[in-house]
Each structure stands twice: as C-alpha cells, then as structure tokens.
Design a protein that fits this description.
- A hairpin with a 2-residue loop joins strand 1 and strand 2.
- Helix content is about 45%, strand content about 20%.
- It is an alpha/beta fold.
Length: about 325
C-alpha cells in the first residue's frame, strides 16, 4: 500500500467518478482504476461498487477512508513538526575551509544541508589555514575553519596559537597518490614516495595556498627531497590540472578522507601512500576560537557534518 493510493481513494469518494477523480489527480482513468484494483486485491476487500450514478463506497470502503484520512493527518502533523523545527534555523553561515575539502566533499555536504535546513545558506570561503585563523580573529560572525592538520608540518615551519584557537577532530584522513588509470602505477594497491622520482609532480596553487609558501626554499626543498629528479609543475588552473591528471601527464599527492565515493571516478586511481619515514595519517576537523560558544546554526552544521562523515567514510 502506498500513500498516494489512499489519496486516490479519497478523491474518488468525493467525486463519485473515476474519470473526474483522475482529471483532478492529473493521471489517466485507466491508471487510477488499476491502482484501486491493485489495492483491493492487496487488502482482500471490495472498496467501491459501480452504480448508475457512478461509483460509491462499500461499507469496507467507508471504514478504510476514515482510517486513511486520519493516517494522512498524522503524517502531515509529523511533517509539519519536523519542518517547523528545521525552520527555526535561518540566516547565512560563513565558514573558512581549505581547498581539499571543497574539491572533495563540501559542495555535496552544503547541498544536502540546505535541503534539510532550507532557510540556512552556507558560504564557504576558501583560505589557507593562516588566513583562515586571522579571519576568525577579526570577525566574530565567522566561527569555523575546516582543514586538515598539515599546518603544523615541519616543512611549513609554523604552528597555530593553542592559547587562541582549539582544533576539533572530526575524522582521520590519509595521504593519497592521485593518478590517471592510463599509467602503470595505477594498478598498485599501495605506494611509497619513491614513485614520485619517475613522474612529474603536480602542485595546484589554489586560493588555500600562499604562493610565497610554495615558492619558498623550505617548500621547494621538501618537494625536491620527495621527487629528486622529477619535474615539478606548478599550476593555478583547476581545469588544466584535472586534464593533465586525466591524460597521465603527471601525478598528484593529496590528503583526503577515505570516502566511499573516492574511487568512483573511472579516469583516476586514488592510491594510499605508506612510507617508513613519514606518517601519512592526518586529522580532519575544524578550528574555533578558544572557549567560543558556537551559534545554534554553527552547532547544527557541525552535527550534520558529523553524521555525513559517519555515513560516508569507510
């Protein structure tokens, strides 16, 4: 039994005509008649009988309609209660986030969140961790910075102020090699950093990176120590970056959450990197100002994100 079948019966009972009810419901008379017959067979009851004046309810049909109307009223009340609760949250939620989260899953999270909380608009601002922390300090309306905990890397040479900010862990991420399936290394189940000596290494200069950081001697030395003789290609165009990867013109290295849909792109392989010299596990989470009480909307978004990651991470 389907909810629409109950609605169909109510329309028929009010119009005393299959054709009139079908017109009201915007379906064919044949489809409506078939639905009624299917429901009668399922219930083992005769709900309508034909007369010279049209169709009329049997006694069983009248009792069924009464129960059906109460059922639809209860469903409507529950739906209204749920929508009223969700509608209590409204406004703009501006969040800072790194590029990796935007590339990987945040657009889907934001769309799903908006379906449930239609009066809340989430505006992700892509920034580096440094700039994002500065933004949190300057603007009280911005409460959250989502990122991976690679800011404290020895290669970047700086750490966040633990007296001013708190980092909250949401999930564990890993270091992956992203490579075209056209290349032979795509068949490898696990890789080490040694593979980067054989292929160009791509760096995407998104807004979340500071170009000065990437061009700095520390970063350059780090890259060269990984790639040795490999050519380093720096890009600031997402489309070019994607096409080079798809066509096997280089490989990339990204910190990513182990999401279920990670391997759905048939053009690319995502291979975990394990290295004895390097810890390839990272925390994904968010920064807040120290001892800051999050707004109700921010708390709801965090709760929604936790549920999403729990359902979609392997």
């Amino acid at each position: 039994m389907r909810t629409e079948q109950i609605k169909y019966l109510i329309e028929i009972s009010e119009h005393h005509s299959l054709s009139a009810a079908a017109e009201k419901l915007c379906i064919t008379t044949a489809a409506l008649s078939l639905s009624v017959k299917s429901l009668e067979e399922e219930l083992g009851l005769l709900l309508f009988r034909r007369t010279n004046k049209g169709v009329e309810l049997t006694e069983e049909g009248k009792r069924f309609i009464e129960i059906g109307k109460r059922f639809l009223q209860d469903v409507s009340a529950l739906s209204h209660k749920a929508n009223t609760k969700n509608d209590a949250y409204y406004g703009m939620l501006e969040i800072f986030t790194g590029q990796n989260a935007i590339d990987q899953f945040f657009p889907q999270v934001i769309c799903e969140f908006h379906k449930k909380y239609s009066n809340v608009y989430v505006n992700p601002i892509v920034e580096s961790v440094k700039n994002g922390l500065q933004g949190l300090a300057k603007d009280d309306k911005k409460e959250l910075l989502f990122c991976y905990d690679i800011w404290n890397s020895k290669n970047r040479g700086w750490a966040y102020d633990t007296a001013a900010y708190t980092f909250h862990i949401l999930n564990r991420a890993r270091l992956y090699c992203v490579v075209s399936r056209k290349l032979s290394i795509a068949a490898e189940p696990v890789l080490s950093n040694d593979v980067f000596t054989k292929y160009p290494y791509l760096i995407f200069l998104a807004k979340s990176y500071n170009e000065s950081d990437v061009e700095s001697e520390k970063i350059r030395t780090s890259i060269n120590s990984v790639t040795e003789c490999a050519q380093v290609i720096s890009l600031n165009n997402q489309l070019v970056y994607d096409q080079m990867l798809y066509n096997g013109m280089g490989i990339s290295k990204k910190v990513l959450l182990p999401l279920k849909n990670l391997h759905q792109d048939e053009r690319l392989a995502y291979i975990p990197i394990e290295d004895e010299k390097e810890t390839c596990i990272y925390n994904f989470g968010y920064f807040t100002r120290k001892n800051h009480q999050l707004s109700a909307v921010a708390q709801v978004f965090i709760g929604f994100l936790k549920e999403y990651l729990a359902a979609n991470c392997v």
